[in-house]
Amino acid sequence: MSADQTSFTHPSFGVMTPERIIIFDTTLRDGEQSPGFSMNLAEKLRMAEALATLGVDVIEAGFPVASKGDFESVNQIARNTRGAVICALARSGGAKDIAAAGEALAPAERKRIHNFISTSPLHMKYKLRMEPETVLDLITAGNTAARNLTDDVEWSAEDGSRTEPDFLCRCVEAAIKAGATTINIPDTVGYATPEDMEQIFSMLRARVPGADRVIFSAHNHNDLGLGVANTLASIRGGARQVECTINGIGERAGNAALEEIVMALRTRHDQYPYTTGIHTQGLLKVSRMLATITSFDVQPNKAIVGRNAFAHESGIHQDGVLKNAATYEIMTPESVGWSRSSLVMGKHSGRAAFRDKLKALGYEDMDDARLNDAFTRFKDLADRKKVVYDDDIVALVDDEARDHDHIRFVNMSVSSVSGQPSEVQLTLSVDGHDTHATATGNGPVDAAFNALRRAFAHDAKLALFSVAAVTEGTDAQARTTVRLEEAGKLVDGQGADADTVVSAVRAYVHALNKLLVKRARTEPEALNA
Fold first, then answer.
1. Is the residue at 335 inside a domain?
2. Binding site, residues?
3. Which residues are documented as binding site for Mn(2+)?
4. Residue 336 lies in a domain
5. What is the pTM of this model?
6. Could you tell me whether strands 433-441 and 8-10 are parallel, antiparallel, or unpaired per DSSP bridges?
7. Which chain positions lie within coiled-coil regions (predicted)?
8. Are residues 151 and 225 in the same domain?
């Protein structure tokens, strides 16, 4: 889409003006490929609904041909999610891929097939082992097949940023002639600079016949920390769709972060006079939801959604903010979903106050069962702590909000004497049936993990064990992270509790449940785009 066009008609979005940026979210596809990340069907449906509510234009739901689980996820998201275009990934050279994508997307209100193939000399020689002319033939075949199933077709040049310009132009021209309506040029390995990306899009728009009839898209990885910068530069070059993920998750160092792109466009409208359909007040809520589901906390200093993003400790900064927030805040916390509420919760707080606090923290959609469970744990925590902080509530609610329920922690008792082995008696619920185990170990955590292996037999190895305090003080909740490894698959689980050993067990159980989800999945070839 040319920057000087007055409008453009898109099969899914109708008339598009040059200042409108399409937000394409690939959290459920590229994001979930990250080592240690996995989501079950219920969690993917929750995320898809949250993304649609946030205002995401296109949700890339998965790669249907990869496995039965991926097919089912895309199909159910297509069936249940409204308000966004639902997209499925396929390889340009795979007839089965494109057929599976079309079948999975059949129930969608609006649908897109996204096909891709590598175009760089390095990928064609070593990954595809194909000649350039063969790649061109597959681009034509793939986009033709996809266009027979839907009017909304996207084509991606994998490793496009390292593709020779002349050949890239030929590939893009072939895709347009075959029916692609969106052309995506990914910086697949995060190698490009902002200058590179702006030049690529400017070049394609100037040289490729039919470039004024398609929307150009940018998909930038963050290996050099340039994902967002490269995306903004791509927009300057003429891209009008950006591909991104919540919290910037994704392969290796991740993708360009949706929340950072959107707020950069909004905050620096003087430099980027573009608009999106994102309801920015929901950014924090969706970020926290994803962190809960994947068990990967957002780093404290993460832009926009990190807990320190609007925190001021320096006396000079605090003085300035108190006089005028604009002295050190370039956007308001409320604009992305943060609340300045300082309501203190304690053992005398009732259910209504607890529900109001949850709404303020972005958990207004919890069902009654989870609310009751979370409130019970809150009261138990409040009996043990003088003050329950917001972070305490987030930690315990996140434990209750998970959909992994094959295995559940019930209770345990610990016997520990200095200088002697500790003993743990543990009860788990496995598919609704209680199972008991007793084990000893070198300390209570080791004993608890040994009991877990007896209660639910498995061969996974403990790859990481980390404990941190949620808040300050000796009565603080412990947040524990456990990483398990099995047959090359990595999963992370998290748990929180005022009792460190219980926190560790909750984290281990969470990781086990995620591992069971991971076992059901297969790793498809050539997923990167």
1. no
2. 30, 219, 221, 255
3. 30, 219, 221, 255
4. no
5. 0.81
6. unpaired
7. none
8. yes
Digit-by-digit pLDDT tens for the chain (529 residues) are: 444 555 678 899 988 888 999 999 999 999 887 776 778 898 899 999 999 999 999 999 999 999 999 999 999 999 999 999 999 999 998 899 999 999 999 999 999 999 999 999 999 999 999 999 999 999 999 999 999 999 999 999 999 999 999 999 999 999 999 999 999 999 999 999 999 999 999 999 999 999 999 999 999 999 999 999 999 999 999 999 999 999 999 999 999 999 999 999 999 999 999 999 999 999 999 998 898 888 788 888 999 998 788 775 455 555 665 677 777 678 988 899 887 644 567 777 888 888 887 877 767 677 788 788 888 888 888 887 767 777 778 777 766 655 556 899 999 999 999 999 999 999 999 998 999 999 999 999 999 999 999 999 999 999 999 998 877 777 788 889 899 998 888 888 888 888 999 999 999 998 898 888 777 665 455 434 4
The Cα–Cα gap between 506 and 235 comes to 44
Domain enclosing residue 67, as ranges: 8-278
SS3 390: helix
**309 falls within a domain:** no
CATH code for the domain of 132: 3.20.20.70
CA 310/CA 328 separation, integer angstroms:
9
Shared domain for 362 and 446, answered yes or no, is no
CB atoms closer than 10 angstroms to residue 375: 19
Answer whether 479's CB lies under 8 Å from 495's CB. yes
Integer angstrom CA distances of residue 527 from 145, 158, 161, 189, 361:
19, 10, 17, 13, 36
C-alpha torsion sign, points 290, 294, 295, 300: negative
Same domain, 64 and 152: yes
Residues 91 and 216 in one domain: yes
Residues 475 and 378 in one domain: no
* Rounded Cα–Cα distance for residues 224 and 258 (Å): 17
Whether residue 368 sits in one domain with residue 419: no
278, 306, 328: which is the final residue of a domain?
A: 278
**CATH number of 509's domain:** 3.30.160.270
List, in sequence order, every residue forming a beta bridge with 59; answer none if it has no partner. Answer: 25, 86
Residues 177 and 258 in one domain: yes
If asked whether residues 394 and 421 sit together in one domain, one would say: no
Categorise residue 443: left if φ over 0, alpha if ψ from -120 to 50, beta otherwise: left
529 located within any domain: no
Per DSSP (E only), the strands in 385-453 are: 407-415, 422-430, 433-441
Is residue 114 within 8 A of residue 89, CB to CB? The reply is yes
